[in-house]
Write a structure and sequence with these properties.
CATH architecture of chain A: 2-Layer Sandwich
Number of domains of chain A: 1
Largest interface: A-B, 20 and 30 residues
Number of strands of chain B: 8
Number of domains of chain B: 1
CATH topology of chain A: Alpha-Beta Plaits
Helix content of chain B: 25-40%
Order of helices and strands of chain A: EHEEHHE
Shape of chain A: globular
Oligomer: heterodimer
Radius of gyration of chain A: 13 Å
Distance between the termini of chain B: 27 Å
Distance between the termini of chain A: 20 Å
Strand content of chain B: 15-25%
CATH superfamily of chain B: Thiamin diphosphate (ThDP)-binding fold, Pyr/PP domains
CATH topology of chain B: Rossmann fold
Helix content of chain A: 10-25%
Strand order of the largest sheet of chain A: 1-4
Structural class of chain A: alpha+beta
Largest sheet of chain B: 8 strands, mixed
Largest sheet of chain A: 2 strands, antiparallel
Strand order of the largest sheet of chain B: 2-1-3-4-6-5-8-7
Order of helices and strands of chain B: HEEHEHHEHEHEHEHE
Number of strands of chain A: 4
Shape of chain B: globular
Bound molecules: thiamine diphosphate, iron/sulfur cluster, magnesium ion
Strand content of chain A: 5-15%
CATH class of chain A: Alpha Beta
Chain lengths: ~90, ~260
């Protein structure tokens, strides 16, 4: 699974940056076309949900999605043939 | 189904300011409702007036966006006319405890089978930041420019004293616990009251030294204290730190309730 921020919904509040145990969300630097500074993702393949959602058949962790007041965070299935990165956490 | 299936996606993004905690409470509520396995056609959301009360407009079930302070009166009507419906109310501190205070205590007293989620931002958000019955002593608002001097209501104590079957308080930082509390409230027959402390960066935070949205949420994180811990401190003769937000499930009981489907 791939972690995505919907740029049409995000209002740049940065609440997602304070809840992720892996610190995947980082405050962004540049405003997008709507003038919103959307957070940047730091190696999102480390997200528990990206790695294990398919295996467990349910949302794991999900703190960022729950706290996001603008319903902007979700996970998408990879397209067929899309290159994927695998992160292994010890 | 997941909670996103309950959203009216065509209405998003919603009207709330950047970082407004109300959106988080909608997520938690819809997650809890989704766990109940209810059908959309059997579920009704009701609200009064205020930023918090706009929430049902973003949810795809039938809903009533009523008059200021009167959400509980309308909800009582729905429940008494058709106890088969699941009725969930979104309200604000002003809507519930100021103009709607009387409806609140009597709905608790009657112990009607409703679940009330109060987004307490300690301010009248929608109308530009007037003080509410929960504005803390010393806080600045447009009606308390030198700092509020009025004692406040503790909404959970009010609900407990008035007779609600389930009473719980969490914050917009404690999303998992809040979701679980709402889920418990939805299951319990009788009146369930869940207070969620939320940030209003625009009309409360900005005037009260929370420069960034995150600052007030960090404050919730650092100042929240579990009820059990607060009790323990008191039992040991120590004092609970000032400005603590006591969180937890305060009441769970089985008083006779009205509007419960038999
Ligand atoms: C009868 C009536 N009186 C006053 C108002 C103006 N009014 C609209 S919203 C509001 C306060 C809302 O505060 P709260 O319930 O805390 O909601 P918030 O916007 O903070 O979420 C007031 C006084 C109104 N709409 N109707
Ligand atoms: S689901 Fe959890 S681990 Fe994954 S990005 Fe969100 S907060 Fe981080
Ligand atoms: S919490 Fe949501 S709205 Fe806020 S910055 Fe993160 S993705 Fe954007
Ligand atoms: S005024 Fe306050 S409560 Fe209303 S939408 Fe803005 S931040 Fe939220
Ligand atoms: Mg309010």
């Amino acid at each position: 699974m791939r972690l995505v921020i919907d740029e049409r919904r995000c209002k740049g509040c940065n609440l997602c940056t304070i809840v992720c145990p892996y610190k995947i969300f980082r405050q962004g630097a540049k405003p997008n076309a709507r003038g919103i500074v959307v957070p940047e993702l730091d190696r999102p393949e480390r997200c528990a949900n990206c790695r294990l959602q398919a295996l467990y058949g349910r949302t794991l962790c999900g703190m960022c999605q729950m706290i996001c007041p603008d319903q902007a965070i979700s996970w998408k299935d990879e397209e067929i043939g899309e290159p994927t990165k695998v992160a292994i956490e010890f | 189904m997941t909670y996103t299936d309950w959203l009216r996606e065509d209405r998003l993004p919603h009207i709330y300011c950047a970082g407004c905690g109300n959106g988080t409470i909608i997520n938690c509520t819809l997650n809890a409702v989704d766990h109940m396995g209810w059908k959309k056609e059997d579920t009704v959301f009701v609200s009064g007036i205020g930023c918090s009360s706009r929430a049902p407009g973003y949810i795809s079930t039938d809903s009533l966006h009523t008059t200021h302070g009167r959400a509980l009166a309308f909800a009582t009507g729905i429940k008494m006319a058709n106890p088969g419906l699941h009725v969930v109310i979104f309200t604000g501190d002003g809507d519930l405890a100021a103009i709607g205070g009387n409806h609140f205590i009597h709905a608790c007293r009657r112990n009607i089978d409703l679940t009330v989620i109060c987004m307490n931002n300690q301010i009248y958000g929608m109308t530009g930041g007037q003080g509410s019955p929960t504005t803390p002593v010393g806080a600045l608002s447009t009606t308390t420019p030198y700092g509020s001097r009025e004692p406040t209501f503790d909404l959970c104590q009010l609900a407990s004293a008035a007779g609600a079957n389930f009473v719980s308080r969490w914050t917009s930082y404690h999303v998992k616990e809040l979701t679980r509390a709402i889920h418990t409230g939805l299951q319990i027959p009788g009146f369930s009251f869940i207070e969620a402390a939320v940030q209003c960066p625009t009309n409360y935070g900005r005037r009260n030294k929370f420069r960034q949205v995150m600052d007030q949420v960090e404050y919730f994180k650092t100042h929240a204290i579990l009820q059990q811990k607060a009790e323990r401190l008191k039992a040991e003769g120590k004092s609970v730190p000032e400005n603590s937000i006591v969180i937890g499930d305060f009441i769970r009981r089985d008083r006779p309730a009205m509007g419960v489907k038999r």
